[in-house]
Target: Helix-turn-helix domain-containing protein
Amino acid sequence: MQTSTLSDRTADIVVQACPVREVLDRVAGKWSIMVIIAAADGPVRFTELERSIDGISRRMLTLTLRNLERDGLLHRTVYPVVPPRVDYELTPIARELHESLLSLTGWAQRHRATISAARTAYDSRRLADAG
Model:
Protein backbone atom coordinates (compact mmCIF):
# COMPACT_ATOMS: atom_id res chain seq x y z
CA MET A 1 0.00 0.00 0.00
CA GLN A 2 1.39 3.38 -1.06
CA THR A 3 1.29 6.16 1.51
CA SER A 4 1.07 9.71 0.24
CA THR A 5 0.18 13.08 1.68
CA LEU A 6 -1.18 14.28 -1.66
CA SER A 7 -4.13 12.87 -3.54
CA ASP A 8 -3.43 11.78 -7.13
CA ARG A 9 -5.37 14.81 -8.40
CA THR A 10 -3.40 17.19 -6.20
CA ALA A 11 -0.13 15.58 -7.28
CA ASP A 12 -1.13 16.08 -10.94
CA ILE A 13 -1.87 19.76 -10.26
CA VAL A 14 1.52 20.20 -8.58
CA VAL A 15 3.30 18.64 -11.57
CA GLN A 16 1.33 20.83 -14.00
CA ALA A 17 2.12 23.92 -11.89
CA CYS A 18 5.87 23.64 -12.53
CA PRO A 19 5.75 25.81 -15.68
CA VAL A 20 3.50 28.25 -13.83
CA ARG A 21 6.03 28.43 -11.02
CA GLU A 22 8.80 29.22 -13.49
CA VAL A 23 6.83 32.11 -14.96
CA LEU A 24 5.73 33.39 -11.56
CA ASP A 25 9.30 33.24 -10.25
CA ARG A 26 10.27 35.59 -13.08
CA VAL A 27 7.42 38.09 -13.03
CA ALA A 28 6.67 38.07 -9.30
CA GLY A 29 10.04 39.50 -8.37
CA LYS A 30 10.00 42.85 -6.64
CA TRP A 31 11.81 44.69 -9.42
CA SER A 32 9.87 43.08 -12.28
CA ILE A 33 6.59 44.16 -10.75
CA MET A 34 7.89 47.68 -10.19
CA VAL A 35 9.12 47.96 -13.80
CA ILE A 36 5.80 46.68 -15.18
CA ILE A 37 3.89 49.19 -13.08
CA ALA A 38 6.26 52.04 -13.99
CA ALA A 39 6.07 51.27 -17.71
CA ALA A 40 2.29 50.87 -17.81
CA ASP A 41 1.54 54.40 -19.00
CA GLY A 42 3.41 54.05 -22.25
CA PRO A 43 6.93 54.11 -23.59
CA VAL A 44 9.43 55.01 -20.92
CA ARG A 45 13.16 55.63 -20.96
CA PHE A 46 15.77 53.98 -18.76
CA THR A 47 16.42 57.12 -16.73
CA GLU A 48 12.68 57.63 -16.13
CA LEU A 49 12.42 54.07 -14.83
CA GLU A 50 15.49 54.55 -12.66
CA ARG A 51 14.03 57.71 -11.10
CA SER A 52 10.58 56.25 -10.56
CA ILE A 53 11.65 52.96 -8.92
CA ASP A 54 12.98 53.75 -5.48
CA GLY A 55 15.97 51.69 -4.40
CA ILE A 56 16.79 49.96 -7.68
CA SER A 57 20.40 50.06 -8.83
CA ARG A 58 21.36 50.69 -12.45
CA ARG A 59 22.70 47.14 -12.67
CA MET A 60 19.51 45.58 -11.29
CA LEU A 61 17.35 47.72 -13.56
CA THR A 62 19.43 46.64 -16.56
CA LEU A 63 19.12 42.96 -15.63
CA THR A 64 15.40 43.26 -14.96
CA LEU A 65 14.78 45.00 -18.28
CA ARG A 66 16.76 42.35 -20.15
CA ASN A 67 14.86 39.52 -18.47
CA LEU A 68 11.48 41.13 -19.12
CA GLU A 69 12.43 41.71 -22.75
CA ARG A 70 13.63 38.11 -23.06
CA ASP A 71 10.35 36.86 -21.60
CA GLY A 72 8.36 38.89 -24.12
CA LEU A 73 6.98 41.34 -21.57
CA LEU A 74 8.84 44.43 -22.74
CA HIS A 75 9.56 45.77 -26.17
CA ARG A 76 12.80 47.73 -26.47
CA THR A 77 13.14 50.35 -29.19
CA VAL A 78 16.52 51.88 -29.96
CA TYR A 79 16.54 55.17 -31.87
CA PRO A 80 19.64 55.92 -33.98
CA VAL A 81 20.38 59.33 -32.51
CA VAL A 82 23.29 60.78 -30.57
CA PRO A 83 23.18 60.17 -27.68
CA PRO A 84 21.32 56.87 -28.19
CA ARG A 85 17.71 56.87 -27.11
CA VAL A 86 16.06 53.68 -25.90
CA ASP A 87 12.38 53.32 -25.00
CA TYR A 88 10.72 50.43 -23.20
CA GLU A 89 7.07 49.57 -23.65
CA LEU A 90 4.89 46.81 -22.28
CA THR A 91 3.83 44.12 -24.71
CA PRO A 92 0.19 43.01 -24.86
CA ILE A 93 0.84 40.10 -22.49
CA ALA A 94 2.53 42.45 -20.03
CA ARG A 95 -0.50 44.76 -20.22
CA GLU A 96 -2.66 41.78 -19.31
CA LEU A 97 -0.31 41.01 -16.43
CA HIS A 98 -0.50 44.65 -15.33
CA GLU A 99 -4.28 44.36 -15.07
CA SER A 100 -3.81 41.29 -12.84
CA LEU A 101 -1.30 43.19 -10.72
CA LEU A 102 -3.82 46.00 -10.28
CA SER A 103 -6.36 43.43 -9.08
CA LEU A 104 -3.83 41.96 -6.66
CA THR A 105 -2.86 45.42 -5.43
CA GLY A 106 -6.51 46.26 -4.83
CA TRP A 107 -6.99 43.01 -2.94
CA ALA A 108 -3.93 43.76 -0.79
CA GLN A 109 -5.18 47.24 0.01
CA ARG A 110 -8.66 45.98 0.89
CA HIS A 111 -7.33 43.25 3.18
CA ARG A 112 -4.21 44.86 4.64
CA ALA A 113 -5.86 45.62 8.00
CA THR A 114 -7.36 42.13 8.25
CA ILE A 115 -4.01 40.50 7.55
CA SER A 116 -2.27 42.77 10.04
CA ALA A 117 -4.84 41.89 12.71
CA ALA A 118 -4.43 38.18 11.97
CA ARG A 119 -0.66 38.46 12.32
CA THR A 120 -0.98 40.29 15.63
CA ALA A 121 -3.41 37.66 16.96
CA TYR A 122 -1.15 34.82 15.77
CA ASP A 123 1.94 36.37 17.36
CA SER A 124 0.06 36.94 20.63
CA ARG A 125 -1.06 33.28 20.71
CA ARG A 126 2.51 32.10 19.99
CA LEU A 127 3.89 34.26 22.79
CA ALA A 128 1.22 33.03 25.21
CA ASP A 129 1.95 29.40 24.28
CA ALA A 130 5.71 29.92 24.72
CA GLY A 131 5.36 31.67 28.05
